[in-house]
Amino acid sequence: MANSSWGLLGNLVTKHIDKLGQTMSEVIAGWDPETATEVDRDRLANSLREAATELEIARQSYNKEHNDVVNLKKTIEDDTRSLVELEKHIAAGTISEASANTFLDNLEKSKTRLVIEEKEEKNALEFMETVKKVVETFSEALADFDRRAKEKIQEMEQAKQECDLEKMKAEQQKEINSLTGGVKVGSSALNALANKAAKMRAEAAGIKAVAEVTQAPLNKEKEIENIRKSFAQPATETAMERLKRLAAENQAK
Fold first, then answer.
1. Burial 89-118 (b: 16+ CB within 10 A, else e)
2. 8 Å CB contact between 124 and 58
């Protein structure tokens, strides 16, 4: 709310400080929507409740003053219309001079009192409008404070959600890094095993090559020996050859 509005309101309240009290004036003078705290807000809310109560009292007071003016005007109008008849009664001698003067004195007093009643009605109306303005201004100030507070709360909630999201992302990234590190360790272990297997295969191939070179002469020598044995073994006899051999041996004897 504009400071000029609060300044105008402060002037109005100061004018009726005797009825509204010093506290309300201090609340208006100390209220700053940009720096207001929760304590200031509570103080303003209390002043609003007091002002609302005061507004109802002011409205009743104004209604009374207004009705007094209306009724007094009607009385004056009725008495003024009665002056013609009063003059006739005075001329006819049907009413005493004293009674006529009493009636006229009362009419003049009513007119004088009407000026006072109208002024009191005006003051009551002005006070009621001032309190009404206070209530409206305080209500707007509270609504503005609550709106600002709601926006701040929403900003805080959004910031918290963003913070939680960033924390979650960080935790997820930490897990991913942990898993990735495990894979790297596993890959290194597998590579080490593969290298060891390759080394063992190379060693086996070398041993086999040496064995083949060493075994070759032995295999060749064994092959020659087998050929020699085959030459030394007698040829297998047939049944006919055996029969002739045995017959020859008998004749020789």
1. eeeeeebeeeeeeeeeeebeebeeebeebb
2. yes
d(CA 36, CA 22): 20
In 1-96, which residue ranges form alpha helices assigned H by DSSP? 3-15, 17-20, 22-30, 38-81, 83-92
Sign of the alpha-carbon dihedral angle for 211, 212, 214, 218:
positive
Q: Distance between the two ends of the chain, CA-based, in angstroms?
A: 160
**Residues in CB range of 120: below 8 A, 6 or more apart:** 65, 68
pLDDT at 113 over 80: yes
Per-residue pLDDT band at 130 (split at 50, 70, 90) = confident
For residue 115, CA distances in Å to 64, 100, 103, 112 come to 16, 23, 19, 6
Structure tokens that stand for 194 in this block: 């593969």
Q: Which domains does the chain have, with CATH numbers?
A: 3-169 (1.10.287)
Place of tokens 């935790």: 171
pLDDT, greater one: 247 or 139? 139
Counted residue by residue, the chain has a size of 253
Tracing tokens 């109005």 back to the chain, one arrives at 12
Residues 6+ apart with CB under 8 A from 5: 137
What pTM, to 2 d.p., does this model score? 0.52
